[in-house]
């Protein structure tokens, strides 16, 4: 059943074989034995992809519920005698993961040494079920989803630049000045060619910006800003240390880039598992303590 579920979610036998650490022939044998036991075809196979039959779709839904109950029953029996154990797969926005979440995972595992955490760092909006992820920590607005959503707050941002760059090009005195500066552009963020600032009276200003450097990773933007390649908006958790030691300065402090939502997405079928619940509770408590993360 577990092999069948992963094939249904992945749609590829060789990918599932690599994931499970077995040969593709073993995956094929599991599927054949399952279909023989059930008595109907569950999967339709082509040279490129494996898809569910109508009977397979209904069987897949029931398998999820059955295996969840099996895992919960095993956990309850095991936890009556010992601490929670097993693996939790966490997906996280890349720069936040490198800067802060990895360290938090160390703390979590010090408290729960029998829990293995598989940390996946990506800025892509992956399909959690398809990728076998239990929990995802995400920045930015999220589309409607079947996942369970836990809002952690907002990540506040500042407009920053390096002292050397500002000495050479002058410091902006008002938002309209920003259009003449080189801006480090995040190419994977929609609308990054316009800088939206919240003014002291609560209104929003839209400033067109441009720059010769475009990056798709927060850590690359951090390095570019510190190196004086231009100005740009940055999450406080990304640059707080550079601000503290003077490598970056805050510009137009009364005007702030709009904050970004921070959320946890949890696969509903995994939410009740003890080790997943422990990690979620830990992240809810600890992420709110990071620089610039505040309640919505």
UniProtKB/TrEMBL annotation:
SUPFAM superfamilies, per database record: Periplasmic binding protein-like II, Winged helix' DNA-binding domain
| Top-level taxonomic group | Bacteria
Provide the alphabetized UniProt keywords: DNA-binding, Transcription, Transcription regulation
Q: Does the keyword Transcription regulation apply?
A: yes
Q: Does the keyword DNA-binding apply?
A: yes
- Which CDD domains does its entry note? PBP2_CrgA_like
Which residues are in coiled coils? none
Q: Which Gene3D superfamilies match?
A: 3.40.190.290, Winged helix-like DNA-binding domain superfamily/Winged helix DNA-binding domain (1.10.10.10)
All residue ranges annotated as the HTH lysR-type domain in the record:
1-53
A single Pfam family it belongs to is LysR_substrate
The UniProt entry, under InterPro entries, shows:
LysR-type_TF_proteobact-type (IPR058163), LysR_HTH_N (IPR000847), LysR_subst-bd (IPR005119), WH-like_DNA-bd_sf (IPR036388), WH_DNA-bd_sf (IPR036390)
Which GO molecular function terms does the record list? DNA binding
> Could you say which protein family the record assigns here?
Belongs to the LysR transcriptional regulatory family.
Name recorded for this polypeptide: DNA-binding transcriptional LysR family regulator
Organism field: Rhizobium laguerreae
